[in-house]
Specification:
Layout (H helix, E strand, L loop, with lengths): L7 E8 L6 H10 L10 H13 L3 E10 L5 E10 L4
Parallel strand pairs: 1-3
Antiparallel strand pairs: 2-3
Helix pairs in contact: 1-2
Length: about 90
Amino acid sequence: MVTGESATLGAVELRGLVDTPVDVVEPVLAAHGIFVGAPFDSREVFTAVRELYETGYFASVSRNLRAGISPDQIDLIILFEEKRGE
């Protein structure tokens, strides 16, 4: 089983966005060291997801983790639900 102590991020994927506000999302992820090849830290992922939600751009933000190509990698999928009617 992949653990936070030994895994690196093999892929970071954003899902659910029609118009991704990259200038909002990428700096938050980078501030928490979330990028391909970085060591996985579940606390940082949780904090980044919370910060993204707190921007007010999204109705919800969540994350999903799955095993990567190699045993010491995981893939991170961040799921966004856009606000409606704005």
